[in-house]
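ok posting inputs for the magnesium ion job
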Amino acid sequence: MQKNISLLGSTGSIGIQTLQVVDMFPDRFKIVSIAASGSKIELLEEQIIKYKPKLVSVTSEESAKRLQTKYGSKHTKIVSGLDGLIEAAVIDDANIVVAAISGAAGLIPTLAAINNGKDIALANKETLVTAGSLVMNNVKLKGVRLLPVDSEHSAVFQCVVPEHVNTIESIILTASGGPLKDHSLSRLDSVTPNEALKHPNWSMGNKISIDSATLMNKGLEVIEAHWLFGMAYNRIEVVVHPQSIIHSMVRYKDGSILAHLGFPDMRIPIQYALTYPERWENKFKQLDFTAVGSLTFEKPDLRKFPSLQLAYDAGIEGGIKPTVLNAANEVAVEMFLRGKIRFLHIPMLVEKALEKSGQIADPSLEDILEVDKSTRIETENVFSKGLINE
Ligand code: NAD
Ligand code: MG
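and the output
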């Protein structure tokens, strides 16, 4: 059977790699809709020409009009704005929606897809961080599959033996440690965006690259794992493993640990999410253990990288706190990338936002959207009013 895919975030790192997987199986996958912000318009145009999707969504109305003039036809419709994004996510023809937008902007279209009964291949971890309870409730209610694309979660998903779920002791998420793992605290203070963007093992979008450098990415993944696998926070471990060969592990009560290994290539977890429950043969580079040599493990340094602890704390407090954590982090990362704050200001801004925020025990979607918005405004204000120490 042919699988019809709606690809949200088609011009990003995950989007491009998803299309590479699709290219390997042209008879088995079809792209029916794509959505992107429109910041890489030439790439989007190439994708429209190559994949001939029925629906294309871009953020600005102006870009949509221009694309409509060039590519619009009775076979291809161009839409814009949030309504357009939702239309791309719920398109009738799609069996599976790849959620690969970056940030909490992915929440609304992903929820719309779930509520329309679509299976989800989830890369967009911020959706689960900001609204985990809501998303998981809807997944259960609609009986759809939420298949992890994040390599750690795909690894855990594959190491969970269904008949032994009740004997899982803990989940062990591996972290590369990012490009700044061995920097001293004082060196971290003067790190430039370019240095922080240079990930040793993965080539990714800017936001997740900075998150990897602060270890916030691992923190977001802890919260993602909590929701995906229903695991208490004190049973989610993080270990730094710089080679990124073990993608994560599951520890069982009898002392057995199952690990998922492979060459660090996001196309592997993307393909598994798209072909699940099957495994299809591909031509990706295979892992050569003798070339790797050794696998090493370290404790994460929470003094240098406090974002990981902030995420654990926000996750344990629950309620609206992960929404605050995520929103403040998105703003802080953006400010760092624009050269407005220093690297170590990122966790400081997140901590300030968490301190200042109130609690909502069981937030509704409206609560989440409202707090996401107000946290963004307040985090920008903290900076512009000079409320963080230089
Ligand atoms: P990216 O920045 O490279 O791409 C983001 C994509 O989303 C782009 O196509 C962009 O146009 C689109 N987009 C952004 N905002 C949008 C909006 N408001 N409306 C419509 N489209 C919008 O990001 P990425 O690295 O591909 O990451 C995407 C998601 O996958 C993130 O949540 C990230 O944490 C997660 N993820 C990425 C990787 C990776 O290797 N890149 C690995 C694991 C998880
Ligand atoms: Mg990951």
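notes: The two ends are 59 Å apart (CA to CA). The first strand starts at residue 3 and ends at 8.
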